[in-house]
Amino acid sequence: MCLSCLRVGHFAKDCKKKVTCNICRLAHPTPLHEDKPRSKEVEITRENSGATSLYCKKASNSNHTSMIIPVWLSCTDPASPEVLVYALLDTQSSNTFINRDVCEIIKADSEPVRLKLSTIASQNTIEKCQRISGLKVRGYFSQKKIELPPTYTREYIPLERNSIPTCKTAEAWKHLVNIAKEMPEELDCPIGLLIGYDCAAALKPRKVIAGKDNDPFAVRTDLGWCIVGPTSHLSGPGNPVGYCHRTFSKEIPPIRPTSIIRALEMDFCNINSKERTVSQEDIKFLEILSKEIQHNNEGHIEMPLPFRARPHLPKNKHLAEVRLKHLKTKFRKYPQFESDYIKFMEKIIEAGDAEEVYDASNDGSTWYIPHHGVYHPRKPGKIRVVFDCSAKFRNTSLNDHLLTGPDLIKALPGVLCRFREHCIALTCDVESMFHRFHVNPGDRDFLRFLWWKDGDTRTEPREYRMRVHIFGASSSPGCANYGFKHLANKYQEKYPLTAAFIQRNFYVDDGLISVETEEEARQLIREANEICAKGQLHLHKFVSNKKGLLDAILEGKPDTTTKEVDLNYNIVPTQSVLGVKWNTVMDTFAFNVTLNPGAATRRGILSTVASVYDPLGFIAPFLLAGKRVLQEMCKQGVGWDEHLPSELKPRWESWIKDVDNLKLV
What we know:
The chain is of the alpha+beta class. It has three domains: about 65-250, Acid Proteases (Cathepsin D, subunit A, domain 1, Beta Barrel); about 280-585, no CATH class; about 600-665. The strands form eight sheets. Strands 10-9-4-5-12-6-11-8-7-17 form a ten-stranded mixed β-sheet. The longest helix is centred in the middle third of the chain and has 17 residues, at about 315-335.
């Protein structure tokens, strides 16, 4: 059990929600408070309003002095009076503070702000205060004025008057007698300032008188002399008043209505392309592709592998051999996995996406890539072979040397919103998009892999290499998007409508668009197929909310496939559009959420709420109710794997039951 918050699951040293005793203000829960004998009682006082220091106080007077000095304080307003106050020169405070009553006396202009204060007694405490600008101070005997930085008001400056050095303090020490005449008696003025290290001019020492080891020392600044140390030779070793002036403060920007609106729209707004930054690596990526992109003799767009610098890689064939042996072992355990895997590999070899190589590898410019199979979670039986370009050998991998390029993908909310802009909606997909873009012949040896001839695992594996940009290479998404948009730009004058479609309405390989008329839709489909054919790309899986439009697609291009969409009104067909359900008959977005809620812990609830996909924020009010349960758990300090508090359980169970009602939205 934690002795700081009385909760189980952690110890006091790891507690993030420590409490303060209401009786003695020490760092322990009130039920653990113990009354001590009065003669030894030490009261720990922390002024919440000040939050600038921590000090311990006894009934006796202080016998030490500090960096406290009388100053004349004024502001820029000529009509404002000049006020005499004591100022604490605090080298451990990040900001300068002024007593609120003093601020009212000098009638300084102020504006409300919020500060985040961190001290030895508290961390990140939010305090409301006023910010004052244009304040000036000068020493008690000086005419030189020092401008203060923006100063913040506090109700109280934690300081004991007994710690103020005076001329009598100097007279008590032989090495300080000469400065006694330059220091006044104790003055009848308030403690009004705490000057932090943001005002170096006021803290800068001009002269120091050190004395012996245990003697007080004197420091002269532009504001005058001050003395730090014991007040007399009879002072005991212990300080009745001990200060820890260590303050860090940060002004919090004001919350304006526009800020609130911007925060609420963060999940739903499109990304402004002007706000996207382009790094030097992104620029290099674009330069490499723009110089070397071309149409090859087969009609495919061909691009190099965008290296940061052309690498000299170690021989890693042994790594590929070991991984292939592990794959063979898995084949023996799962025959269906073996069958699907072999079919996929034979398909890419027959399509010319991979080729067998017979020549010896070149040192430094050859890399063997391990591969493994992954099934689509929502498409049973559909396997995809992923080439592991992140596989390390001698602390390096192929992905370590590849540039990923800039983000050329349009924002998902924007693509979906434009998809519902007009009455006729249409979606399509680029078949095997990555494999439609070829790699320059000089870079293909970096994409070698091992495989069995005709998928016969009884034979010795042979060497192959990919001729296309592959799944698993960090550069492939950037290259595919760049090549697709390059194709659209190349034929923009001849096909302006379709070029704009490719540039603005594709999210990776999924195209979504809406138009006003069926004639415009037919033109768009025809031109899109023509442009894609020029780069050996193939559009398929057309879906539309107009049955006649799909019939026209099949009649005009028999080899073009559509999804099996039943447009009879007896059955309501629902298609997935970038993860969002689209009812093609009602022409509306829908929600059919199937949750598998885990344990009712903070971790499980976070996973459940985050699993509801809503990129446009249609059900944001519903999701907010689930997030508020999570927020309450965070406020109460519930651990990641602690069970849901009993008072929140009805709210969470009600939210889970309401998930089924989303299909009615």
